[in-house]
Every structure is written in C-alpha cells, then in structure tokens.
Design brief:
Strand order of the largest sheet of chain A: 2-1-3-6-7
Order of helices and strands of chain A: EHEHEEEHEHEHHHHH
CATH topology of the largest domain in chain B: Rhopdopsin 7-helix transmembrane proteins
Radius of gyration of chain A: 17 Å
CATH class of the largest domain in chain A: Alpha Beta
Structural class of chain A: alpha/beta
Low-confidence stretches of chain B: none
CATH architecture of the largest domain in chain A: 3-Layer(aba) Sandwich
Number of strands of chain B: 17
Shape of chain B: elongated
CATH superfamily of the largest domain in chain A: Response regulator
Low-confidence stretches of chain A: none
Number of domains of chain B: 4
Strand content of chain B: 5-15%
Helix content of chain B: 55-70%
CATH architecture of the largest domain in chain B: Up-down Bundle
Oligomer: heterodimer
CATH class of the largest domain in chain B: Mainly Alpha
Largest interface: A-B, 29 and 29 residues
Strand order of the largest sheet of chain B: 12-14-15-17-16
Number of helices of chain A: 9
Distance between the termini of chain B: 71 Å
Strand content of chain A: 5-15%
Largest sheet of chain B: 5 strands, mixed
Mean pLDDT of chain B: 79
Number of domains of chain A: 2
Number of strands of chain A: 7
C-alpha cells in the first residue's frame, strides 16, 4: 500500500478527518484525498492528474452523501479502476444500503462508531484480502444466492464450502471458529469470504445486465 | 338401451311411474269394491237371506270387518267360507230377508263409485298419501338406501290400506277368491311396512354398527314369522299377524332409541331423528294403540279404516320435515319438484276438464288451462315459496358496514371470526369449511346446495352448504349478494392496504431519519475529542438501531439476534484483547420471532454487560451463557476480573447498571448481580 493514494468520501467533516486519521495509523505512507459529496468524488475519480504521483490504492466511501448515494461512487470506481477495492463506511452493519453497496462492488465495510483500534485492524484485514463479514450480511448473502441457482453460470453459484461458511458466520461464529468447525485454516475460510464477495459482484452484474436486457436497454 | 336408462333416470319419470302405480291400485280397488251387488241392506245377526242360489243365516261373525282380528284359528277359514257362501247367494237379482219376523224383498242394483263410503275413501287417501310421499322422495334419490327403504315401507302401507279399503267396506260379503288375497295383501302389506321401516332406522340418520347383518336377520325373522302365520304353519294363526305388528312397533322404538344414542354428538342427525322418529312413532303408535293393542287385549278395535288415518300423520309429518330437517337430504329441491309436478298435473287436469266436461275444443282449452295455471297456480306457488323462505336480509348500507368491520379487524384471527360471523348472518349455512380456492369469484354448485367464496386477501377460500339452516338452496340472488359482499370487502381491503402503505412509508421515513441523521450527528460527537462521552454515544447509537428496527416493524428471529449480538460482542472484546466464551445454540433452535421490547432489551443487556466488562473489570475473558425455555430466557454473564465494587451492592449501581435493571424489571424479568468473587450477572427475561 505504500506510495498509494486513498480516496475518502465522507460528508461529515469530523468523521472525514477521523477516517483520515485511521488510514494514516493503519498505513503511514499512504496519501489521502477527501471528497465531501458525490459530485466531487466522481470528478476526482475521473481526473488522472490527482493520482499522478501516487496511484489510487483503495477508497473508503460513505453511502449517505448530500447529493446522492455513495453506491454511484462504487459503480464509477468499478468502471474506471476495476482492481481498486472500495470499502463502505457505515454506521450500522445492517444498514439497508450496505448490502446494495457490497453487491455493487464494495469489498468490505467499516463501522464508523467502532473504536480506533478495531477500525485500524479491520482496514489492515481488508488490505490483506480478509474483508469482514457480519452475521446479518452473511444471512442476507445466503438469501441472495438461494433462489437463483443458475446451472449455466458456475461463477455466480456458491460452492458447498462457501455456503457452509456463510451459514456458520450467519449463526454468529467468527472466521477462526468457522475454520475450526470446518477443519480448515483461518486463511482458507478468509479466502472463501473473499470469493463470496466477488461472486456477489459478478452475480450483481449478471442481474443488472439481465434487467437491462429485459427492459430493452442493451 | 342407453336412452332407456336415461329416460328412467329423471325424477319426473320415476315420479310418474309412482303416480301411475298408485292410480292403477286405486282403480283396481274401486273396481273390486263395485263388483258387489247393492241391495241397500245392512247386515244384522239373525237375518236370514234367501235367494235363488240358497239360504244363509247371518251370524255375529259375518259382520267382522277385519278377518285378521278374529282370534281363533279355525274361525278365520270358517269366516271366509261363510263369506263365500253368502256372496254366492247375493249374486241373485233379488233376495228375500226375514228378520225379527218381518220379511222383505230387495232388488239388486249395481254398486257405483258414488256409493262407496267415506271409510273406503279414507283408506284410499291414506294409501295414496303413503305411496306418493315416499315415492316422491325415492324418485328424487333412487340410489340412496334410506329412501329406498322408506319407499318400500310406504308401498307396503299403501297395499295394506288399499286392500283393507275394499274388504272392510264391503256391503255384505265377498267371495273367497277376492277376500283371501285381499286379506293376505293386507297382512303382508303391514309386514312390508314394518320390515323396511326397521331397516331404515338401522341406517338413517346414522348407520348403526353391523347394520347389514341386522337388516338381513330382521328381514328373515319377520318374513318367516309372517309366512308361518299366513300359511298357518306350526300352529300359528292369521290373527297372529297383529302380534307381529306389535313386535315390529317395539323393534322400531328400540332402533330409534339406538339412533338416539348414536347421534349423541351430531345435532344435525339428532334433529332429523327426532322429527322422523317422532312421525313414525306417533303414526304407527296411534294405529297400534287404537287397533292392534285393543285386539290383543280383547277389546273392540277402532275401525281399521279410520285407524289407518294415523299413518297419514306419519307421511305428512315427514313431508313437512323434509325441508326443515333436510330429511334424506332432498331439502327444498323436493318442494320445488313438487310445485312443478303439481303445476303440470293441474294444467293437464284443467285441460281435460275443459275438453271433456265443458266441451271446449282442444286449442282454446289448452290456452285457457295455461292462462289459469299461470294466473292462479304460479302466484300461489310463489306465495308459498316466499312463506317457506322467509329470512331477514341485510340492507346495502348494513352490508357495507359489515364488510368494513371484516376488513378493519385488528388481527387476522379477529378478521376470520368476523368474516365467519358475516357469512353466518347472510346465509346461515349448516356447513362452513375453508378449502382450496376454485375460482377468483363466487361459485355456485350445480345443485345449488353449496357456494364457494374465493380467497380474499388473507382470508382463505370458504365453502358453505345448506343455507338458512338447510331450509332452502342458494338462489341466483344469493350468489349476487355474495358477489356484492366480496366486492365490498375487496374494495375496503385495497383502501386499507393503501392506508397501511402510507403508514408504513411514514414509519420508514422516520426510521430512516433517525438512523441516518441522528446517528450521523451522534457520530460527529463520537469522533470529536470528548472521550468521556464515547460509550454514552455508542450506547445511544445502538439504541437507535433497535428503535429503528421496531419502527420499521422488522421481524427478528431470536437465533439471528443472538448471532448478531455474539458477533458484535466478539468484535468489541477482540479490539481490547479480551476473549469471549459464548456457546451458540444448535442450529434452528430458536427459530421464532422476538417482539420489539424483548429485542431492544436483550440488545441493551448484552451491550451494557460487554461495555461494563471492558471498562471496569480488568478481566481477560467474558463468559456468556444463554438458555431459552418455552417461557424464559436465562442469561448468565461472568468474567475473570476483580468483581463489582462494594458500593454497587449498597445501591450505587451507576447509570449503566441502573438502566439495565430498570429495563429488565420493566419487562417482568429479574436482575441479579453478585461477586463469585469475579463479577457475575444473572438475568431472566420472560418470553411472551
């Protein structure tokens, strides 16, 4: 992460500087850019000169922006920088929009009310490809993947192992406990979680395209 | 062949056959009765009748109207023989009677229909009444065993009364070739009344255990006995048929008693039994009391002809009960059928009268008959129809009010209750059953017995049968009424849903504002410098989350709530390097929704315990144990730290513990803290 830029999109100034502080603690050599609304966030993403010295490494995005939803920022990022992970900054992990944001391409989330230490460790985990997954999101994911099993698209179906991971997390187990239960390493289970996030993104794209086709947009 | 079968399968044809049989029987009876020469003489004992064929001295025995009533075996044959002898003498054109020293000469005249006495007609009417009423019911339901038994018994009674009509009203004597068959027909008719009647009560209204065996036995028993009497085997006498009738009466009463026991928990069958049983017991009972019993006791019986009238009570009673009690389940269809049949008969009769008696030519006669029937009979029919079908109707505004009260019921259970109440009020059906929906609209069964409502919002489809306590069928008007009601309810329902949507949207908006705006504002406080406020703000934010869930009426399952709380506690303790030991329940253990208050309290309890532990305990580990019974949730939390400060036990619990205590006790739970010497909190919350 060293030598890269972190884009923070947050409309509340105190929270914005708090998040900036967290990023600095987690990754001392990362530059930060703060955007306070949707319009300026999109403008920054579309301005290559902003990342000339330090390329865009990751983004922290608040969903409730004064001029729109942070989900649009996530979509724009997915379009322009598909490999740059975006992280949602949310107050509650069962927020109505959090799941939509995760489906739109976000790779994990931060709980803004958490203590500084726990936020720093979460950020580090995300950077290590170990995104957090709360029980309520796990259950929501299970519902998401339950109904539309598509035999032709194995890349959007969950494997039995991935499904079991979701079930156990949904019951309140931690990643370590899930690993013990499934007799796997914590690293493997964390890998499953990562794959599940990716499948959610793919599934969401498939869904978007299907919907667009249905409406005659494509 | 197939056409034939279809032809006989209509009730009208079957009834026509019954009517025809009755008519033929009546004509035969009239013909036989009119064969006798009429000398206008009343027989007296002591008369001596002389004609060119011989001489006959009249005795007391010759006056007996019913030979079956003669008690001595020898006397039955003797009586018939004497009758035959007298009948031969009476064949002459002229007889001479010497009585109490006067001699008179009498000339024979032909006995005409007009000469037949009231007693004759009484018995013919009784016979026809029995045959027609039972035949009418059988014609409607020919394949049902009870109606067949009922018809057979009616036919038996009819034959018995019809034959009795001929010989009990004879002028003086009948030849043996008529008298004996008539007398036997009378006896066997009586048997053929009783045997099917017993069989009927063995299977109707409810089948009595082993009814097949009982019916077979009953038939064999009475017919053997009857045969023994009429053939005068083994010393049995014809007069013993009276004993058989009495025994049958007793058996009928016993079987009705058995039905009374069998129908104990079935009010519908009990009502049928009471009416049908009462009709039969009164009808046959009167006959037995006035006739049979008196014969057996050696008293002079009431004239058999009049005693037969009691049978008419039986059949007319049953005819009246058909509608009220749905006897044999023919209900008012039977009446409608009867109305149309009698309409046709009156029409044909009028037509015939106009042609043959008034001598009007055919076409105008037909027209006149038609006019007469339509102007007099049909309105009369309608009047009776209305008389039978009287029931209170709801006015449109009342209907609307009822529909609204169904729609606006506070809960699904109350709604179902009100819906059932409304259907009962409108149609008073004997049967109501929820079923699979068969259509999106009201469906009337082809026979008019049942009506099926479609499913309306959360009310399942409903099938109702036998409206107005089974007094009539569903008319097209009833279908219209049902449709109108459904429409009212659906309209009211959609308005209510729109209203509910508005309420839900408003609640969600409030929830959203609380969630986003208030929480975000609190968050800025959190990220400010004042670290004293941190936990207070965090507590406030978790409260907001619970409140929002409550406002948005989100259903939360206990399992999921515990999973979320465990995960959250884990994350918080992990950030300060503490362990959490919290065994989760087996999968699917607590798959039930918790209400808002419990949800909020449970969340606050766990969060407060974790916060306290982090702040004050100096512990390295927190253990949480949660047990759920059907009535309570038991929470035990203990750490390995320094325990509660002494002042906590002296009433200085501090804000966090105080509010915890209050919340738990508000819900009707118990709150207990102790040092073991480590801190331990035991909380019991009631599940409602």
């Amino acid at each position: 992460m060293t030598g890269k830029t972190c884009l923070i999109v947050e409309d509340q100034l105190e929270t914005g500087s708090f998040l900036t502080k967290i990023v600095k603690v987690a990754f001392p050599n990362v530059a930060t850019v703060l955007a306070q609304d949707l319009k300026s966030a999109i403008a920054i993403i579309n301005d290559p000169s902003k990342f000339k010295d330090a390329p865009l490494g990751f983004c922290i995005i608040d969903l409730g922006l004064p001029d729109g939803s942070g989900i649009d920022v996530i979509r724009e990022l997915k379009e322009k920088y598909p490999d740059v992970p975006s992280v949602v900054a949310t107050i509650y992990d069962d927020d109505a929009f959090l799941f939509k944001a995760l489906a739109a391409g976000a790779f994990g989330y931060l709980l803004k009310a958490d203590d500084e230490s726990s936020l720093v460790s979460t950020l580090k985990l995300i950077e290590n490809n170990n995104p957090p997954l709360s029980p309520s999101i796990a259950r929501r994911l299970l519902r998401e993947f339950r109904d539309d099993n598509q035999p032709n698209k194995p890349d959007v179906n969950l494997s039995p192992r991935e499904r079991e991971t979701l079930v156990l997390i949904g019951r309140g187990l931690t990643v370590n406990e899930v690993a013990a239960e499934m007799k796997l390493s914590a690293q493997t289970v964390a890998g499953y979680v990562k794959i599940i996030y990716q499948k959610l993104h793919v599934s969401n794209r498939v869904e978007l395209i299907r919907e667009a086709t249905r409406r005659g947009l494509v | 062949m197939k056409n034939n079968a279809q032809f006989f399968s209509t009730p009208y044809v079957r009834l026509a056959i019954v009517l025809l049989s009755g008519t033929i029987l009546t004509l035969t009876a009239i013909y036989l009765a009119c064969l006798e020469n009429n000398f206008s003489v009343t027989l007296q004992p002591g008369m001596v009748i002389t004609s060119s064929y011989g001489e006959f001295a009249v005795e007391e025995i010759d006056l007996a109207p019913e030979p079956g009533d003669i008690p001595k075996k020898f006397d039955y044959e003797h009586f018939l023989f004497r009758q035959d002898e007298l009948a031969k003498i009476l064949k002459a054109d002229k007889i001479i009677i010497s009585y109490k020293s006067t001699i008179s000469e009498h000339k024979a005249s032909v006995r005409t229909v007009a000469d037949l006495p009231a007693l004759f007609w009484t018995q013919v009417v009784v016979a026809l009444g029995g045959i027609f009423i039972s035949g009418w019911i059988w014609a409607l339901k020919p394949k049902s065993l009870p109606t067949l038994f009922f018809f057979l018994s009616g036919l038996g009674m009819g034959l018995s009364a019809m034959s009795s009509a001929v010989y009990t009203t004879r002028l003086m004597a009948l030849p043996i070739e008529f008298f004996k068959p008539l007398s036997l027909t009378n006896a066997w008719g009586a048997l053929s009344f009783g045997v099917p009647m017993i069989a009927l009560f063995l299977i109707y209204p409810r089948e009595i255990r082993r009814w097949k065996e009982l019916i077979t036995f009953e038939i064999l028993f009475f017919f053997t006995w009857g045969l023994a009497c009429t053939m005068q085997w083994w010393g049995f006498k014809v007069a013993d048929v009276t004993v058989i009738i009495l025994v049958m009466m007793v058996v009928i009463c016993v079987v009705i008693g058995a039905q009374f026991v069998v129908t104990k928990n079935d009010p519908k069958s009990r009502a049928i039994l009471l009416w049908l049983g009462l009709s039969v017991i009164i009808g046959t009972g009167l006959f037995v009391v006035f006739n049979t019993l008196r014969v057996l006791l050696g008293l002079k019986p009431l004239d058999q002809g009049y005693a037969f009238l009691s049978f008419l009570i039986l059949y007319v009673g049953i005819a009246f009960g058909l509608k009220q009690y749905r006897l044999f389940e023919v209900g008012d269809w039977a009446y409608r059928f009867l109305f149309y049949t009698s309409g046709t008969l009156i029409f044909v009769a009028l037509d015939a009268i106009l042609i043959f008696i008034l001598g009007i030519s055919r076409v105008p006669a037909l027209g006149l008959a038609l006019v007469a029937v339509s102007f007099t009979y049909l309105p009369l029919r309608d009047y009776f129809w209305r008389l039978f079908n009287r029931h209170k109707e709801l006015l449109p505004h009342e209907l609307l009010r009822e529909a609204l009260s169904v729609t606006l019921a506070p809960s699904a259970a109350v709604r179902l209750q009100r819906w059932e109440g409304l259907v009962k009020k409108l149609f008073d059906p004997l049967e109501m059953k929820y079923c699979e929906p068969i259509s999106k609209t009201v469906v009337l069964a082809p026979d008019g017995v049942a009506l099926t409502f479609p499913a309306i919002s959360d009310i399942p489809a409903l099938r109702i049968a036998y409206p107005w306590s089974g007094r009539s069928l569903f008319s097209l008007r009833a279908v219209e009424l049902a449709k109108q009601m459904i429409q009212f309810i659906e309209e009211a329902e959609s308005s209510r849903q729109a209203y509910d949507r508005g309420v839900v949207e408003e609640r969600l908006r409030i929830a959203q504002d609380l969630h986003d705006d208030v929480s975000a504002r609190l968050l800025t406080g959190l990220h400010g410098d004042n670290s004293d406020l941190r936990s207070t703000i965090q507590g406030a934010m978790t409260d907001i989350r619970s409140i929002v869930k409550g406002i948005a009426a989100e259903k939360v399952f206990l399992n999921d709530l515990l999973a979320d709380l465990r995960s959250e506690s884990h994350r918080r303790l992990l950030a300060v390097d503490m362990d959490l030991v919290w065994l989760l329940p087996e999968k699917n253990t607590y798959e039930f929704a918790v209400d808002y208050h419990l949800h909020k309290t449970l969340g606050s309890v766990i969060r407060e315990i974790v916060s306290n532990c982090i702040k004050h305990s100096n512990a390295k580990k927190l253990e949480v144990e949660i047990n759920v019974t059907t009535e309570q949730i038991h929470i035990t939390a203990s750490d390995n730290g320094q325990g509660f400060a002494e002042k906590v036990f002296q009433g200085h619990m501090g804000f966090g513990l105080n509010s915890l205590n209050k919340r738990v006790t508000d819900l009707g739970g118990t709150f207990e803290i102790k040092n073991t010497p480590h801190a331990c909190v035991i909380i019991v919350l009631p599940l409602l």
